[in-house]
Amino acid sequence: MERRTFIKNTSLLTTALLTTRFDSWANNASDPILIKRLDPAWVKSLYERGIPTTYLKSKDELQFIGMPVGGIMCGMVYLGGDGRLWLWDVFNKNQSGVVYKNIPWHEKIQFTFDYARPFDGANYVEPVKDVRPIEQGFSIKINGVERKLIDADEIKFEATYPVATVTYLFKELTVVLKAYSPFIPLNAEDSALPATILSYSFESTTKVDVEFTGWFENKSAIYSANDAEYYRVNEKKENGVFMYAKSYNWADETFWHAPDYGNFCFASLNEGDQIKEKPLATITSSFTLQPSSKKELNYVAAWYFPNLTFDKIKSEGGRHYKKRFKSSVEVVKYINDNFKSLSEQTLLWTNTWYNESTLPHWFLERTFLNISTLATTTCHWFESGRFYAWEGIGSCPGTCNHVWQYAQAVGRIFPALERDTRERVDLGAGMFDDGHIGFRAEYDTSPAVDGQAGRILDIYREHQMSANDEFLKRVWPKTKHAIEYLLIQDTNNDGMTDTQLENTLDAKWPGEIAWIVGLSLAAIKASAIMADEMRDKEFAARCNDYVTKGKANMEKLLFNGEYFIHRPDAIKGRDGVLGSYNTCHIDQVYGQSWAFQVGIPERIIDKEKTISALKALWKYNFTTDVGPYLAEHHGGRPYALPGEGGMIMNTNPKNEEAPYGVKDAWQVTYFHECMSGFEHQVASHMMAEGMVEESLILTRTIHDRYHAKKRNPFNEVECSDHYARAMASYGTFITACGFTYHGPKQEIGFAPKLGADNFKAAFTAAEGWGTFSQAKKEAKIEVKSGKVELRRIKLERKGVKKVEVFWGSEKIECSTTIKDNSINISLTRSILVVQGVPLVFRLMS
Questions:
Q1: Cα dist from 444 to 438, 447, 502, 519, 670, whole Å
Q2: Cis link prior to 162 (omega < 30° from 0)?
Q3: How far apart are CA 640 and CA 647, in angstroms?
Q4: Closest Cα to residue 357, out of 739, 716, 66, 79?
Q5: Whose CA, among 249, 357, 404, 521, lies 20 to 30 Å from 39?
């Protein structure tokens, strides 16, 4: 396919508002300084509250939409833009990509392939659509005239994961679908049901007679059951149809253990529906809708395909849901028996996240929807309780720690999953006697220096997201051993990691690399804090001394006056040795970015130098059109196409002839790509440092790359589909709220970066979740579910001189320290904040 075709087919929707001018191209086409011209009206719109992103049938915006709408780690089912269920990757096939396909390409990718594979971005270039192994849908008779729902005059899709709203507009009435699988923060078990709930409401201004029918095709054992040896059974149940396959051979052990052996259940949660099972499972509801009245109907599509295995970890058993249920019928029964609580909690979270917040709708969508990766075949949960994941669907096994340590979402929404993975995998199956953590556990036992540092920071986050210190007490001995391994990767004892180990760019770079040095310093600083909490004063002091020395040397030796670099190994040099060297690398101050995610109070890297580095990334790496850059830099994978914006991984501001030490290493092509996980990491850091506008522009640029007109908004692609690193997007929400939390210390903090005078957003804690709101004279913590125990609260407001605290109507004694705009409040006793009894702070000037 020719480049001009891509330019034509992938132009930014915001072209009229967002344009770029490239200077210095005539003199130096290989590494331009990318200068942005941004329309002020467009930039202003980024701050506006707005409405949910809504895609329309009339604008041909529905065909690529595939919102994961099954339970987390239960396989993958897509909700289409028209409200039908499609794709159905629940059969444990474990193929690479949403669909495996190779796309002809106009140049060689990574110097080798003249086509793009799923892990090269094939499904980014040509998005998947209309993959329907199972026929499923609904039809409606309105006053005797039958139509399919998808034939509505207009269809609107609101992209608000975990609950999508699909509106069908007919002349006679409006039908609204709420589609979701139960999704309840802090409750992974009830968020991991192999089922989709379809809730329809009907409304009309006139009296209409309605007959509503849903159908579902039996495709159990879809790959194994040929007609000669097997047959399918649709068995009518009280409230639905149970669908499975049987063998003519009563002793067919191979069939029973096949990956696609299992069953479906299509069921009604309504009274009086008519159920038929042949040839398709159908459910029909008939009713008369009175003027200005509403009718609600609820259905469940459930599945049960438990035979999931991976060769190296067969002992972990099949799918986790096998422990709770013996069939899809049991799944439906559980949902039916608990429908009120499951639906209310899911809708409550969705309402809390989107509708109660003051943050821009588009921002809330892009920072949260990537957690839907958990509901894809990137992620799995075994009978043993072990969490396991690819990097992206079917690509790179073993819950790779140098990728997953970027993903901030899971640790905040389902912290128990992450705690278990730290303990069971990183400090368990992946831990070795010398203290190193195998970066893919059983699948690659060698260490990755960035993965090792990231997992130490993860352990600190998981400790913070606990109600007490029992987790840290259990893991501390092994954690300390892992920290000691990281410390000795500094061979000359200058506080800067320099051992040649694997990193996330699939290479082993020698020398002192700013992003690895800084990330290690952040991990060692978190280690000092954990050691202090574990009363290991000597080790805490050792870690603090290391950070002090490393910080000084990093700022002295790796800062070139504008940004941070990679200093070559003193012996190996850089000639013929792969590295980033004097280029402007996207992760150069990643350690400080991580520090903000876990609320480390002291700077890891000097603020002035850090902001200078971020501004350099903005100046040299961010562009609103990657086309001219890609025209001169070849071999990279197509994660952003001409006409689309993004932040390029590495640029060459010094105009060096051989900026990466080598020209022919395939890893060099990474430097010319736009990988959204890295971009989100930078956006979160910019937000934390007060570069709010740049953060919003970068995040919105990613959001626009995934507009439904062009591709699936829910599938951020890196090395395959639904890539784990993209869950770094949640980190930008964390820093927009200025959120910090430490459950065992009963501490919480908020320092909003957007609309601080009138702010409201969701938060999650160890045992509960709710909202924080802030106005000029008052701040409030409200719990919507569970409980949050607090004793110390940190706020940030201008002009406050005195604070009073109320727990419901009771005034709580406290001591307050106010310095500049920081307000530190210590309550005289712990307060348990629960639903209906908020914690209120009166702010007086």
A1: 6, 8, 11, 22, 21
A2: yes
A3: 10
A4: 739
A5: 357
User: Distance between CA 484 and CA 824 in Å, rounded?
Assistant: 34
Sequence letter at residue 665: A
Each residue's pLDDT tens digit, 148-177: 999 999 999 999 999 999 999 999 999 999
Per-residue pLDDT at 31: 37
Please give the Cα distance from 733 to 478 (Å, whole number): 31
Residue 432: Cβ within 10 Å count: 14
DSSP state of 395: B
Concatenating the DSSP letter of every residue in 450-461 gives: HHHHHHHHHHHH
Amino acid 82 reads D
Distance CA 411, CA 416 (A): 8
Structure-token pair, residue 808:
């419901």
Tokens (6 digits) for 553:
């040397």
Backbone angles phi, psi at 337, to 5 degrees: -70, -25
Q: Quote the CA–CA distance of 747 and 766 in Å, as a whole number.
A: 11
Task: Report the alpha-carbon distance of residue 700 to residue 646 in Å, rounded.
Answer: 10
Question: Which parts of the chain sit beneath pLDDT 70?
Answer: 1-35
Q: How far apart are CA 236 and CA 784, in angstroms?
A: 40
Query: By three-state DSSP, how is residue 208 classified?
Result: strand
**Phi, psi dihedrals of residue 172, rounded to the nearest 5°:** -85, -30
From residue 309, alpha-carbon distances to 219, 259, 425, 430 in Å are: 21, 8, 17, 19
Inter-residue contact 34 to 619 (CB < 8 Å) = yes
| Angle 668-672-676 from CA coordinates, rounded to 5° | 115
> What is the token pair recorded at 345?
């909690």
With left for phi above 0 and alpha for psi between -120 and 50, is residue 824 left, alpha or beta? beta
Q: Pick from 131, 128, 197, 132: which is nearest to 162 by CA?
A: 197
Phi-psi bin for 221: left (phi > 0), alpha (psi -120 to 50), beta? left
β-strands 802-807, 810-812 pairing:
antiparallel
**Residues in Cβ contact with 494 at an 8 Å cutoff, skipping those fewer than 6 apart:** 549, 550, 553
Q: Give the span between the Cα atoms of 592 and 605, in whole angstroms.
A: 6
Give, for 774, the enclosing helix (H) or strand (E).
Answer: strand 768-774
CA distance 378 to 373: 7
* Lookup: tokens for 605: 């890297």
Q: 815: exposed, middle or buried (C-beta count within 10 Å: 0-12, 13-18, 19+)?
A: exposed
Instruction: State how far the Cα of 45 lies from the Cα of 303, in Å rounded to an integer.
Output: 43
Asked if residue 119 lies in contact with residue 390, where contact means CB atoms within 8 angstroms, the answer is: no
Q: What is the pLDDT of residue 841?
A: 98
Instruction: Kindly give, in sequence order, each residue whose CB lies less than 8 Å from that of residue 458, ignoring residues fewer than 6 positions away.
Output: 405, 411, 418, 422, 426
Closest C-alpha to 228, from 244, 251, 249, 242: 249
Position 24 scores a pLDDT of 28
Kind and range of the H or E run holding 608: helix 607-616
Tell me the Ramachandran region of residue 389: left when phi exceeds 0, alpha when psi lies from -120 to 50, beta otherwise: beta
CA proximity to 342, closest of 538, 577, 71 = 71
User: How far lies 65's CA from each of 77, 128, 805, in Å?
Assistant: 12, 9, 47
Amino acid type, 683: A
